[in-house]
Amino acid sequence: MIPCTKTGCHRWFRNKSGLTQHVNVYHPVLPSVNISVPVEQCQESSAGEEHSQVLPDGYGDSGNPLDDPSNSNPLAEYVGPGDRYYRNYHPNLTGRPCDSLGNFLPAGHPAEPLTDMQPDDWSPYSSRLEFELADFLFTRSQMSAANINELLNLWNASLLSTGGQPIFRDSGEMYKTIDSTPLGDVQWEKFSTSYTGERPTENVPPWMNDTYDIWFRSPKEVIRNMLSRPDFSDAIDYRPFREYESATDSRQWEDFMSGDWAWKQADTISRDPATHGSTFVPIILGSDKTTVSVATGQNDYYPLYLSIGNIRNKVRRAHRNGVILIAFLAIPHMDKEHASTDAFRRFRRQLFHSSLAYILHDLMPGMTEPIVMRFGDGHYRRVIFGLGPYIADYEEQVLLACIVRGWCVKCLAMRQALDTDALYRSREHAEALIEEFDLKNLRDEYGIIGDIIPFTSGFPRADIYELIAPDILHQIIKGTFKDHLVEWVESYLKAMHGTAKANAILDDIDRRIAAVAPFTGLRRFPEGRHFKQWTGNDSKALMKVYLPAIEGHVPVEIVRTFRALLEFTYLVRRNVITEETLVTIEDVINCFHKHREIFRKSGTVQTFSLPRQHAMKHYPDLICLFGVPNGLCTSITESKHIDAVKDPYRRTNRNKPLGQMLIINQRLDKLAASRRDFSRRGMLEGSCLTATMQLFSTRAHSNTSEAPGLNRCNEDTDEAVDCPTSIEAHVELARTPRTYLITLSKLAAELNLQHLPTILEEFLLQQLDAYDNCDSDLPEWPTYGNKITVVNAAAALFYAPSDISGIGGMRREYIRSCHSWQNGAPRYDCAFVNTDSGLKGMYGLDIVRILAFFSFVSQSKRYPCAVVRWFDRVGDKPDTDTGMWIVRPAFTAQRRPSIGIIHVDTLYRAAHLIPLYATRPVSRNLKPHHSYDSFTAFYINKFIDHHAFSLLSDSY
Questions:
Q1: C-alpha 879: how far from chain center
Q2: How far apart are CA 149 and CA 161, in angstroms?
Q3: Least confident of 68-82, 135-149, 194-208, 246-260
Q4: Please, are residues 386 and 369 in contact by the beta-carbon 8 Å criterion?
Q5: Cα 54 from Cα 75, distance rounded (Å)
Q6: Which of these, 418, 338, 838, 366, lies nearest to 617 by C-alpha position?
Q7: In whole numbers, what is the pLDDT of the chain averaged over residues?
Q8: 38-58 mean pLDDT
Q9: Over 727-750, what HEC string results?
């Protein structure tokens, strides 16, 4: 569905033509305005008053605010290179800088320096070496106090003979230095609560007498620290906005502040003129129980995390402390006798909500009256808080919304018929129902637990039903895919073929999965799907390879069901979602609903009223409200569990570990804040060794040069790269010690390609064609040195913001070609090659398998190259059932494999191929490194990652 973007208009349309007709009739655009989608009005008209568009003072002759550079607060601005996009910004909550007292500053007024500390002031550390050592031991190595003491004893003993001074005497001195850091210092606090209701006269359950401790940090101070971070200053949105493509006026959604929810909140807040010019700061929360150790007993923790909607999704997802631990909630435990009682369940729910309300209470004043906070760009701004989306899995969502399990937390659809159309839930409607009906009717007819007060009830503008965020991980990946469809396939096969034959088919599916060729970052399934505990990463990995594995064993309707779900998952996971993408999402939802009927018709399932599957229906609306879902997924909070809960727990002595975990988290925050401060002041450039050498060189007035770094790549995994978004893709030979010099003839013998020298000469002639128009004399036949340098990998750097990437959206992966990968079998990866940059997707790309990477010198110029085997596309469009392109190994007219040499500049990135298994059973002896040599046709796996999906989806 596509919304009308006019303020106050709540119409939705199934397609762009309906929206266009509506805008032309009800929101006409004056022809004098260049931007055809009208900017929102600065002032609201009175109810029922008809008005025409009035151009404010300061607009140019064209009516475009961009024409007048003196307009300090235009309603619309072009963004990005080439003016391809423009934004309409909210006219009232504008994030205007002010002084520390809240007085607005004139436009262009410079910010005050963030600190007056000198670039050589390492306080509270005495030197860079002292800070780097503390950070290395505590943050990176996570060394225990006993081991730190042992290391320092050895180090200090080595200094005695030279008269040197120890850096730290022991771990206690190091901890004291870290604790004295004022940066990032938000103290942990505690409050206690207990049951205060009616008690039985005898046999009082233990939980009624227990006291429950909740540890927390002031969310206001955590937000103050987050806003003041200089490294966030270029990745923060100060104003709600709506973004459009300039050429088509088509709207698109990306970061949180681009959604309609932030804009509507700003409309409500700005009814008070005193808030104008302020910055709206939405509070994003997330909670989820986690277990740190099963073997040593019940060790469950209930962390609560906080982020803000102003920071962009790439920061929240890039593990840059954009999500902060602010509390450990209480977990009441009870024996089975009392755990199932209504009284205990009611107390447990209310304890959760009351704890949240208390933790967040210091934000309440700032939700109605602006408070002044300093931002990372050095400016002060007035800030208005608001409770924003809550990140949670379904079980947590039920608890938050005070809903009966099995009902939808977003709409009023009946539990037995979730996919019927229904109105959205709302706070006002729920409160009216609670006043009208008794508790039993509320539960049975509306799924509402009416005797619990949600934590949002005391906060302005907070509707818990609206604030429940979409959850790709649990609703789609672990829920609909793994728990539903994968299990349904097994049940279907048993229903159709009987248990014995079904098990044989399932074993073959497992062998297909296990035989998939390796790929950077792809989890291996050596035994197929059969392992006890599934993680989110396991489910994500299985999604990438499952579809080709079941083809041939199940009907085409099941294949298309999986394809629809996979495409939905990858579409909603995109970094930018356009109106066109929303229409495509609606289409794949309809395809999914259509093709999944085979499971009901076959008797595999009786109903599709499953809350996690039903949640797919709400994604288009939630995207319009909150921006793209990848910035609000539980995968963000689950990954935070490792740093904030599980690793700190492992560092404790297990004796009352929570107190130790709080201290560990506080020290980690202080060290991270110190590193950011020292980096901002330019004090951490180069390595500690080179900086120390430079210092001594300066003191000695010598010319000692810096020691060069090793600058070696990590070839084990792909990685996020924090660098500017300056290129779409670039490939170069990896800088690695695994290189060797050989002759071309020896390489030809290793590859069993005796005509390799001829191929190289043809390659050189092609390269020299670029110089045909040059005046320099060239030899008639190219020459090259006898020795060539062979390397085992090439590094591909490309823009992949929808995958795990740096804050600039860049990602690096390694394309490998080696005789032995990790001391095991050979590995020769496949890759995309640019063959026609003027065509989109696969129409401008080809597939090759890399047989060797090497470089050589000819006429004083070095050529980085690859020996490749070419593949041919099968057909001119993807397969209709799987949606994936099919390729076959190419052959010459003499039926010899088509071999060539290409420049690495023509490579785009790695490609992953999966065989077309059809009905052919897979041998138990087939290994992953055999995959590319054992089959004659392959799918190009567009589900291997989100970048590949977007790249290959551009073809049709």
A1: 29
A2: 20
A3: 68-82
A4: no
A5: 13
A6: 418
A7: 85
A8: 32
A9: CCEEEEECCCCCEEEEEHHHHHHH
Angle between helices 145-160 and 171-179 (to 10 degrees): 110
Q: Is 504 helix (H, G, I), strand (E, B) or coil?
A: helix
Nearest to 597 by CA among 561, 563, 567, 566: 561
Kindly state the tokens that stand for 208: 């009624």
Q: CA-to-CA distance for 644 and 666, rounded, in angstroms?
A: 10
Q: Measuring CA to CA, which residue among 297, 359, 298, 357 is closest to residue 328?
A: 359
Residue % of the chain over a pLDDT of 70:
84
Beta bridge partners of 911: 830
Q: Is 872 helix (H, G, I), strand (E, B) or coil?
A: strand
Q: Report CA dihedral (856, 859, 861, 866) to the nearest 10 degrees.
A: -30
157 pLDDT more than 80: yes
Please give the full DSSP string across 438-499, using - where no structure is assigned: -HHHIIIII-B-TT---GGGGSTT--HHHHBPP-IIIIIIIIIIIIIIIHHHHHHHHHHHHH
Cross-strand bridge partners of residue 287: 304
DSSP calls for 135-151: HIIIIIS---HHHHHHH
Letter string b/e over residues 705-744, b meaning 16 or more CB atoms within 10 A of that residue's CB: eeeeeeeeeebeebbbbeeeeeeebbbebbeeeebeeeeb
**From the DSSP assignment, how many helices (H) and strands (E) are in the chain?**
29, 32
What residues does 12 pair with on adjacent strands? 3
Strands (E), 617-714: none
pLDDT in tens, 596-629: 999 999 999 999 999 999 999 999 999 999 999 9
Element (H, E) at 803: none
Give the strand pairing for 899-903 and 739-743. unpaired
Q: Which of 223, 615, 627, 608 is closest to 392 using CA atoms?
A: 615
| Distant-in-sequence, close-in-space partners of 807: CB < 8 Å, separation ≥ 6 | 235, 314, 315, 318, 320, 722
Confidence (pLDDT) at 690: 67
Under 8 Å between Cβ of 623 and 572:
yes
DSSP 8-state class, residue 643: I
> Are the CB atoms for 367 and 283 separated by under 8 Å?
no
Q: Which amino acid is at 602?
A: S
* Cα 22 to chain centroid, rounded: 36
Tell me the Ramachandran region of residue 225: left when phi exceeds 0, alpha when psi lies from -120 to 50, beta otherwise.
Answer: alpha
Both structure tokens of 193: 């609560």
Angstrom distances, CA of residue 14 to CA of 109, 583, 620: 46, 8, 11
Residue 912 and residue 898: Cα distance in Å, rounded?
19
Write b or e for each residue in 404-430: b if 16 or more Cβ atoms lie within 10 A of its Cβ, otherwise e: eeebbbbbbbebeebbeeeeebebebb
Are 813 and 519 in contact, with CB atoms under 8 Å apart? no
Q: pLDDT for 558-577, tens place per residue?
A: 999 999 999 999 999 999 99
Beta pairing class for 899-903 and 886-889: unpaired
- Whether residue 795 contacts residue 784, with contact meaning beta carbons closer than 8 Å, is answered with no
Question: Which residues make beta-bridge pairs with 551?
Answer: 554
Strand partners, 739: 791
Rounded Cα distance between 707 and 691, Å, is: 10
